[in-house]
Each structure stands twice: as structure tokens, then as C-alpha cells.
Specification:
The complex is a heterodimer.
Chain A: H1 13-29, H2 33-53, H3 61-87, H4 96-116, H5 123-143, E1 148-160, E2 177-178, E3 181-182, E4 185-198, E5 213-215, E6 218-219
Antiparallel strand pairs in A: 1-4, 2-3, 5-6
Chain B: H1 7-12, E1 27-30, E2 45-46, H2 49-58, E3 63-65, E4 75-78, E5 83-90, H3 96-115, E6 127-135, E7 138-146, H4 148-161
Parallel strand pairs in B: 1-3, 2-4, 5-6
Antiparallel strand pairs in B: 1-5, 6-7
Helix pairs in contact in B: 3-4
Classes of the chains: A alpha+beta, B alpha/beta.
């Protein structure tokens, strides 16, 4: 299946996106998950071009923020459809690698939806989000709240992703959206201090799974992931 | 500022920061170990301090953080979901209600973002804050490591007592 070339209707890109959200949903209801994934990829591509190339002179800050919302939303839909490809398999939850893969996709999708919820009004987004919460509840029921690796990192030098200045010297606020970009601190000099085991993690992807015990009380686990809700925009 | 009337401030300020350095500010957002670090090189900025100080400024408060006061302090990024605010020193008690409101909103926004992704049965992250309030020549201190709801209630009481 090929990625479709979609022209963004710059005069009414929001209605156009609404139609595609419905189309995506129809695919998932019919379990046409590959089609749902390709649709997302076909839309993310032009949104990404607009956000990265900035070749739309008439666009306002609000337009760029809207394109970021749409790109993240369709990436969350793509994560959800990929997760769906695993959980429609019979006895998927009896395979540990499936359980881990779904856990990661679940959080990728959820974190992305969290970053746009309140910014986008869509019954379909709410419905999918609710499905993700149900799936999370199933994990809690079967595996409890879990334990997670949590590193402490000392950041000695950090620049702002928006203005490239020392983050302490500018007015941009980490996590806020500016002109279709999310403000972040780009760490340039760091020191890993400790790794703790916590019950309330910042990143649930660093979960310690019981089947990952390599020898008595020695577990294999991720201690840090590089996930960001918009990191797909930097992919080539 | 008269030195005698600022004895309370002089006692609280360390690491080369003088009363003169802070005379133009209403609130300071300081490293979490500002009063316990053995020297300037051991100071550590809490992970949420920088955003907090920027929001205070954005809301029109005269606020200084460690960097504004000439301190080069590394930030400690903790991956747990707790909120780490370091030391917030309210020098001008006239600004207390506004500062408490901004602080409350900041904490509630961070917690509500997390509660979207956490079930009600799951333990909530804690808030870590040392709050100092200078009023009538004395400095009152609150060191808090606990849940957000209790802290918000305590802060509302502080505001109402004003």
C-alpha cells in the first residue's frame, strides 16, 4: 500500500482534517488498520512540510499551532492503529513482547492525545482516548501499577529550542507552544546522577516487567527514552 | 534599604547574595538547597523553578531567579512525576495573594495534566516546595513535601490570613 499524496486545503484545512478523522475512524471500525496507518502518514507528511519549511507566507502563529495539533493528532491515530494491529490478534496478551509493544504504543498515543486535548474538539478523539484508558485499566488489573526506572540528570547547560539562547535567559516557557513549535530545553552538558525505582514515573515507558528478570533480582529495563510528542517531525 | 530593618533578610540570604541585590524584587525563586549548600558550586536548581520564575515575570511580578542574581546553577531533572519548585521567597507581602494564585494555578495545571493519564487509584506525584514569606520584619517558612491538594489548601489559608 502506498502513501497517498494529499494536498492541504489551506483555506479550510480544519474541515478537511475533520473529514479525514472520520475517514480514519471508518477504516478502524472496519479493521482496515493498514489503510488507517497509511492515511495518517499521508497527512502527516504535508503537515510536516508546512511546519518545517514555513513556506506559507499568509499563515499566522495560530495556523502553525493548528498544523502542529493536526500533525500530533494524526500521529496519535497512527500509534493507535499500530497498537490495534497487535491487539486484534487472538491471545495477543499471552506474548510478553506483544504486551511490551502495546504498552509503548499505548503511551505514545496517549501522550500525544494529552498534548492536544483541549486544543482539538472531536468526538472521535474522545472515543479513542477512552479506549486507551480502558486498555490501561486492563494492564493495571493484570499487572498492577508497576515500578519504573527514573533517572536524575544534572543539566549544566541548556539552550532554548525556540530562540537558541541560554534557557535561563529567555522568556520562553518549556512545554508551551510558539508558532507551531514546542519550547524545550536542549541539554548541552549533562551528568547522570542516579537511577531510582519509582511508582509514579514521568515516563511510563521505563517500566520494569517481571519477565525481564535476567537473574535473581537483576532486571533488564529502559532507564530513559527519547520520546517527545512531536519527535516524528524531525524524522527524514 | 536600612540595614537594621533588614536583619531578617540578611539572615536568609547566602551564597554572596546581598540585600542590595534583591531590593528591586517582590519574589525570588531560588535553588532548592539555597540555605543548606556548603558553597555556591553545590547549589541545585529544582526542575520546575525556571518555568515558575518565568511565569511570575510574565504575570507582571518583579521576580528574580538564581540566574538573574548572578548564580550559575545546574538544574536537576527528575524523571519521577513530582513537582519540584525549590525555594520561593516572597519578599513583598503585598504581592502575596497574586503569587499564591499563580503558584496554585501552576501546580493545579501540572497535576491535572497528569491526572488525565493516571487513574484515581494510582498514587499522585508530590509537590516539593520551600516557601518563605517576609512580613512585618520576620520571615515565616514552610517546607512542604506532599500532595498538591493539601498544599493548595495551606496556601489559600496563607492568602486569606493576609
Amino acid at each position: 500500500m502506498m502513501i497517498e499524496k494529499i494536498e492541504i486545503n489551506k483555506d479550510d484545512y480544519l474541515s478537511q482534517a475533520e473529514n479525514y478523522i472520520q475517514k480514519w475512524y471508518d477504516h478502524t471500525v472496519k479493521r482496515e488498520l493498514d489503510k488507517a496507518i497509511y492515511l495518517c502518514q499521508s497527512l502527516i507528511q504535508p503537515y510536516k512540510q508546512i511546519l518545517n519549511n514555513r513556506d506559507w507566507p499568509k499563515a499566522t502563529e495560530n495556523d502553525f499551532n493548528n498544523f502542529l495539533i493536526l500533525a500530533i493528532t494524526f500521529k496519535a491515530f497512527e500509534d493507535y492503529a499500530e497498537l490495534g494491529k497487535i491487539i486484534i490478534q487472538d491471545k495477543w496478551d499471552q506474548d510478553n513482547s506483544n504486551l511490551e509493544a502495546v504498552w509503548l504504543k499505548l503511551w505514545d498515543s496517549k501522550d500525544r492525545f494529552d498534548s492536544v486535548r483541549g486544543k482539538i474538539q472531536s468526538e472521535i478523539v474522545d472515543r479513542i482516548y477512552s479506549n486507551l484508558e480502558d486498555l490501561l485499566a486492563q494492564y493495571k488489573q493484570n499487572f498492577g501499577n508497576g515500578l519504573y526506572a527514573s533517572p536524575e540528570i544534572l543539566i549544566k547547560k541548556e539552550v532554548c529550542s525556540i530562540c537558541q539562547k541560554d534557557i535561563r535567559a529567555c522568556t520562553h516557557i518549556k512545554g508551551r507552544w510558539y508558532d507551531g513549535k514546542i519550547c524545550r530545553g536542549i541539554a548541552e552538558d549533562i551528568e547522570m546522577k542516579t537511577i531510582s525505582i519509582v511508582t509514579v514515573p514521568k515516563d511510563p515507558r521505563c517500566r520494569i516487567w517481571p519477565w525481564r528478570e535476567k537473574e535473581e533480582r537483576v532486571f533488564e529495563m529502559a532507564v530513559l527514552t527519547l520520546f517527545q510528542v512531536d519527535n516524528f517531525l524531525n524524522d527524514d | 534599604m536600612n540595614n537594621d530593618s533588614n536583619l531578617d533578610l540578611t539572615t536568609e540570604l547566602q551564597n554572596g547574595i546581598s540585600v542590595d541585590d534583591i531590593k528591586d524584587f517582590q519574589v525570588l525563586v531560588l535553588p532548592e538547597n539555597f540555605n543548606s549548600a556548603s558553597d555556591k558550586e553545590s547549589l541545585i536548581e529544582a526542575s520546575d523553578s525556571l518555568n515558575m520564575s518565568k511565569i511570575f515575570k510574565e504575570e507582571g511580578l518583579k521576580c528574580a531567579n538564581a540566574y538573574d542574581l548572578g548564580l550559575d546553577v545546574p538544574a536537576l531533572e527528575r524523571r519521577g512525576s513530582d513537582i519540584w519548585l525549590g525555594q520561593i521567597f516572597i519578599i513583598d507581602d503585598v504581592a502575596l495573594p497574586l503569587i499564591i494564585n499563580i503558584l496554585t494555578t501552576f501546580i493545579q495545571n501540572k497535576i491535572s495534566k497528569k491526572s488525565v493519564t493516571e487513574s484515581k487509584s494510582e498514587p499522585e506525584g508530590k509537590v516539593h516546595l520551600e516557601l518563605k514569606i517576609r512580613k512585618n520584619g520576620t520571615v515565616n517558612k514552610l517546607k512542604y513535601n506532599g500532595d498538591s491538594k493539601t498544599l493548595v489548601r495551606i496556601m489559600q489559608n496563607l492568602k486569606n490570613d493576609d
